[in-house]
């Protein structure tokens, strides 16, 4: 596995991308744990960021994701005026991962940082995972009640701002395509529907998307088609990196406004959207 880490760092160097100054590769062979923890900045205070769990194609992909997410947290904390820096931990999911033991071990390693990293859940990390972490550290928040509703309120205000840019008052009648029908996507869809928006839902779990759409009198489409739907707003609310340069050129939505982290796959994607 250390060969994979060395290969990941070599690949970043070839891409002229500087690896983070503070990152830890955490392993625990008995549980199968393999994780990267990145501390992007401690300039304003302890690093804050969630723990993401997903199947990565390589150690390089995992490290890149951790790096990008940690940098985003640094910027978000600074913009919000918080006395915190940015960090992120990504766990490489795989067959045979003993999650209770793995996350308890991860908690112990976070505890050893003595508060330099404060964490909570993120995509793919369950409440059971967080509670296992809490056996090893005091620096994890396991109570996520109200989180989805808070994100939905913020999303609603952002989409209202997009509407105002188009000379509209409120979101009534707006067509919004929501990618992801998980806890965040569902809350965003509900908040928009309650204000009169017309929602189009998609998820890899098609039954979940259909249940959400039926409840809100909306519609569904396939996960492959949601990015190209003819709507006013595209709202990615699942995985990040979905707006590639090619997709940015082909979008039919008037604006992109989502709750997912790092929606743009690259700076080039953002520049294309600006030019359009």
General description of the model:
By secondary structure, the chain is of the alpha/beta class. The chain has two domains: 2-134, Rossmann fold; 147-275, NAD(P)-binding Rossmann-like Domain (Rossmann fold). 40% of the residues lie in helices and 17% in strands. The chain contains nine helices and eleven strands. The strands form two sheets. Strands 1, 2, 3, 4, 5 and 6 form a six-stranded mixed beta sheet that branches. Strand 8 (198-202), helix 7 and strand 9 (219-220) form a beta-alpha-beta unit. Helix 1 crosses helix 2, helix 3 (99-111) crosses helix 4 and helix 5 packs across helix 6. The longest helix is centred in the first third of the chain and has 21 residues, at 59-79. The chain is globular.
Observed structural traits:
2 domains; globular; 276 residues; 5-stranded parallel beta sheet; alpha/beta; Rossmann fold; 17% strand
Task: Give the helices and strands, then pairings.
Blueprint: H1 2-14, E1 23-28, E2 33-39, E3 47-48, E4 51-54, H2 59-79, E5 85-92, H3 99-111, E6 117-118, H4 127-134, H5 147-165, E7 175-179, H6 183-194, E8 198-202, H7 206-215, E9 219-220, E10 233-236, H8 245-250, E11 255-256, H9 267-275
Helix pairs in contact: 1-2, 3-4, 5-6
Class by alpha and beta content? alpha/beta
Q: Which outline best applies?
A: globular
Overall mean pLDDT:
92
Please tally the β strands and state the result. 11
Unreliable segments of 5+ consecutive residues:
none
If classified by CATH, what would the architecture of the largest domain be? Answer: 3-Layer(aba) Sandwich
Radius of gyration: 19 Å
Beta percentage is 15-25%
Could you tell me the CATH topology label of the largest domain.
Rossmann fold
- For the record, give the distance between the C-alpha atoms at the N and C termini, rounded to a whole number: 43 Å
CATH class of the largest domain: Alpha Beta
Quaternary structure state of the chains depicted:
single chain
CATH 4th-level superfamily of the largest domain: Leucine Dehydrogenase, chain A, domain 1
């Amino acid at each position: 596995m250390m060969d994979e880490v060395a290969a990941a760092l070599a690949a970043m160097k070839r891409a002229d991308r500087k690896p983070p100054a503070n990152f830890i590769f955490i392993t625990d062979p008995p549980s199968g744990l393999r994780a990267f923890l990145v501390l992007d900045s401690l300039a304003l205070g302890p690093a804050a960021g969630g723990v993401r769990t997903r199947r990565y194609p390589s150690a390089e992909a995992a490290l890149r994701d951790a790096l990008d997410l940690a940098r985003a947290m640094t910027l978000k904390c600074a913009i919000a005026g918080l006395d915190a820096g940015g960090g992120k931990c990504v766990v490489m999911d795989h067959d045979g991962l003993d999650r209770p033991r793995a996350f308890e071990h991860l908690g112990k390693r976070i505890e050893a940082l003595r508060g330099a990293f404060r964490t909570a859940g993120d995509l793919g990390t369950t409440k059971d995972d967080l509670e296992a972490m809490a056996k090893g550290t005091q620096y994890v928040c396991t109570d996520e009640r109200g989180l989805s509703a808070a994100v939905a309120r913020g999303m609603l205000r952002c989409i209202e701002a997009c509407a105002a840019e188009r000379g509209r008052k409120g979101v009534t009648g707006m067509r919004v395509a929501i990618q992801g029908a998980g806890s965040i996507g569902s809350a965003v869809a509900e908040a928009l529907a309650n204000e009169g928006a017309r929602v189009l839902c998609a998820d890899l779990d098609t039954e979940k998307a259909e249940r959400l759409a039926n409840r809100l009198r909306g519609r569904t489409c396939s996960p492959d088609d949601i990015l190209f739907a003819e709507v006013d707003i595209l709202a990615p609310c699942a995985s990040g990196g979905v707006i590639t340069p090619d997709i940015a050129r082909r979008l039919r939505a008037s604006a992109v406004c989502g709750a997912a982290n790092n929606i743009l796959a690259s700076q080039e994607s953002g520049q294309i959207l600006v030019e359009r």
